[in-house]
Design goal:
By secondary structure, this protein is an alpha/beta fold. It is 45% helix and 9% strand. Bound molecules: 2,5-dideoxy-2,5-imino-D-glucitol and manganese (II) ion (2 copies).
Length: 390
């Protein structure tokens, strides 16, 4: 068995819309035929994925009757059962239909906000029926071009009203479900509200039930904003708010590319996998590893499954590299914590006595600053582990 072949234990997932992407873009028509959800379930299972995610309308076409919905769900459940696949996450498409052209929860039209709440409650019901435990909110249309159209504070308030309403819906229904908010700085709107994971982490603290709400950071989105994705994920983990994650690849200064995981900035992908897997000796992330990405427009269906296998294989290769890196004695020596039993107790838990002791310490800036940190050697070792020569 190839050590990099994915297994269910790896918890890899793909959205129906990812491997089902037909290659349409703003400058060209679809290049691939649509794939039936039941076909996607079978093929993902054959590739070694653990689960499949969906927007409501990826499975149940917009405007389907109740009986059509029930038939589609029944067939989909049968395919999940047959191929041993689960649905860890679901979400609502609040961005494709023209009704959402000026937002969903933040729209200036209360009829649109009402429709968005109703569609989301139905989407939550569908997700829970399929076994989802995480519900993602990506506000793709929640933003502006003509920014004078609404006070941005109103957008924040309307989003909070919607989140609090839907949290209470989940509580009243008794669903075992948490929410994960996904940030993106722009595209398809000129500016999207709550543009980064950091903005989302603060927003969550203003909700009526913050314990139900976390984040779903995406590599491409934080990278589009020019930020360190790993640092944003680390802050979410430290806050206990990394409820889900969207993995892909992206180059800064470009539209949302949603490339195969690890296919652009390998260094950052390595550091991210090291953080998620806790190879540096920390608690690992234990949620789904979702690839919110799609194959190049150049590809046929065979290329789509090359794409899916590539995402999972690269993740597992980087995990093995990170394990080797953090097991390397020279690396461990270079990143070993500096300890100072006399000083460390003074650095937290203010007391008058500690303040006085800090002021009395003999600290010589000139001699302290002379110490070389050997980060060049450390980083070279990381590169050599990444390149497989160590
Ligand atoms: C885009 O990055 C968004 C939508 O695809 C979806 O709502 C969410 C779930 O992964 N990601
Ligand atoms: Mn994206
Ligand atoms: Mn995403």
């Amino acid at each position: 068995m190839d050590p990099f072949d994915p297994t269910a234990k790896d918890r890899f997932t793909f959205g129906l819309w990812t491997v089902g992407n037909t290659g349409r873009d703003p400058f060209g028509e679809a290049v691939r035929a649509p794939l039936a959800p039941t076909h996607i379930v079978r093929k993902l299972s054959e590739c070694g994925a653990w689960g499949v995610n969906l927007h409501d309308n990826d499975l149940v076409p917009f405007g389907s009757s109740a009986s059509e919905r029930d038939r589609i769900v029944r067939e989909f459940k049968a395919a999940l059962q047959e191929h041993g696949m689960c649905v860890p996450m679901a979400t609502t498409n609040l961005f494709s239909h023209p009704i959402f052209k000026d937002g969903a929860f933040t729209s200036n039209d209360p009829k649109v906000r009402a429709f968005a709440l109703r569609k989301t409650m139905d989407g939550i019901d569908l997700g829970v029926e399929l076994g989802a435990r995480v519900y993602v909110f990506w506000g793709g249309r929640e933003g502006t071009e003509a920014d004078a159209c609404r006070d941005p504070r109103t957008a924040v308030a309307r989003t909070r009203e919607a989140m609090d309403f839907l949290c209470d819906y989940v509580r009243e229904q008794g669903y075992d479900l948490v929410f994960a908010l996904e940030a993106k700085p722009n595209e398809p709107r000129g500016d999207i509200y709550f543009p980064t994971t950091g903005h989302m982490l603060h927003f969550i603290s203003t909700l009526a039930h913050p314990e139900m709400v976390g984040v779903n950071p995406e590599v491409a989105h934080e990278t589009m904003a020019g930020l360190s994705f790993t640092h944003g994920v680390a802050q979410a983990m430290e806050a206990g708010k990394l409820f889900h994650i969207d993995l892909n690849a992206q180059r800064i200064g470009r539209y949302d590319q949603d490339f195969r995981f690890g296919s652009e900035d390998v260094r950052q992908a390595f550091l991210l996998v090291r953080l998620l897997e806790g190879t540096l000796g920390t608690a690992p992330y234990t949620g789904p590893l979702h690839f919110d990405a799609h194959a190049y427009r150049s590809e046929d269906e065979a290329g789509v499954w090359d794409f899916a296998r590539g995402c999972m294989r690269t993740y597992k290769i980087l995990k093995a590299r990170a394990q080797a890196f953090d097991a390397d004695p020279e690396v461990r020596a270079l990143i070993a914590e500096q300890n100072d039993a006399a000083i460390e107790p003074l650095l937290s838990g203010y007391t008058k006595d500690k303040a006085a002791k800090l002021r009395a310490l003999a600290l010589d800036p000139a001699s302290i600053s002379k110490r070389g940190l050997r980060y060049e050697r450390l980083d070279q070792l990381m590169i050599e582990h990444l390149l497989g020569v160590r």
